[in-house]
Amino acid sequence: MLTKTTTRTLNNSIRTAAFSKIAASRAQHTLPQLPYAYDALEPSISKEIMTLHHTKHHQTYVNGLNAAEESLTKLQSQEASPETIKAVISLQPALKFNGGGHINHSLFWKNLAPAGSEQTKLPAGSKFAQAVERDFGSLENLKKAVNTKTAAVQGSGWGWLVCRLLSVSLWS
Questions:
Q1: Does domain 1-121 have CATH number 2.60.120.10?
Q2: How many CB atoms lie within 10 A of CB 101?
Q3: What superkingdom does the record give (predicted)?
Q4: Fewest beta carbons less than 10 Å away: which of 38, 150, 158, 160?
Q5: How far is CA 40 from CA 45, 49, 54, 56, 112, in A?
Q6: What pTM, to 2 d.p., does this model score?
Q7: For residues 48 and 59, what is the distance between their CA atoms, to the nearest angstrom?
C-alpha cells in the first residue's frame, strides 16, 4: 500500500510529465492572413499603415508570444524549484500581453471592412440596432462612448462591445 505522500508525489510526476508533453508539442503561433488586400480599407486606413500594422506590429506580438512560450516550455522541463517557479511566474506578463495582443489583432482584422460595404452598416430594425438606439441614442454616440471608454487601455484602447439580449455594454 502506498502512503499519501508517495501517492501525491506519483500523481504530481504524472501530471508534470503529461503537461510537459503537451507543452513540448505546442505549435508556433503565426501571423494570420488578412481577409482582404492591404489597400482595401483606403481611404480610412492607408495601405502603408495596414501593411505596417499587420506585418510589423501584430508580428511583434506573435514573436513575443512564441518567445515567452518557448521560455515557459524550457522551464517546465526543469526540476521544480523556487527559482523555476519564480521564473515561470515572471513570464505571466509577457504571456498575457503578447497573447492578448495576438488574439485581439486576429479578431480585429476580421472585424474591419471596406467603407460603404454591407458589413459596415448597422442592420436596420435588428435587435442590435434597437439596443444601440435605446442605450446610446445613435451609432455615432456608441462610437464616441467606445472611444472615450477605451482611450486609456494598454494597447491603444482595446475594448469589447458586449451585446446582451436586453442591453449593449462597453467593456475595457
A1: no
A2: 21
A3: Eukaryota
A4: 160
A5: 9, 12, 14, 18, 10
A6: 0.68
A7: 15
d(C-alpha 75, C-alpha 156), whole Å: 32
122-172 under CATH 3.40.50.1260, yes or no: no
| Residue for grid cell 505571466 | 92
Which segments of the chain belong to CATH 3.55.40.20? 122-172
135 vs 57: CA distance, rounded Å = 34
